[in-house]
Amino acid sequence: MTHWFHRNPLKATAPVSFNYYGVVTSPAASKICSDLRSSRARLLELFTDLSCNPEMMKNAADSYFSLLQGYAQQDAVFELISMGFNVALWYTKYASRLAGKENITEDEAKEVHRSLKVAAGIFKHLKESHIPKLITPAEKGRDLEARLIEAYVIQCQAEAQEVTIARAIELKHAPGLIAALAYETANFYQKADHTLSSLEPAYSAKWRKYLHLKMCFYTAYAYCYHGQTLLASDKCGEAIRSLQEAEKFYAKAEALCKEYGETKGPGPTVKPSGHLFFRKLGNLVKNTLEKCQRENGFIYFQKVPTEAPQLELKANYGLVEPVPYEFPPMSAHWTPETLAAFDLTKRPKDDSAKSKPEEVVKPVKEPDIKPQKDTGCSIS
Question: At the fourth CATH level, which superfamily is domain 1-172?
Answer without folding.
Answer: alix/aip1 like domains (1.25.40.280)
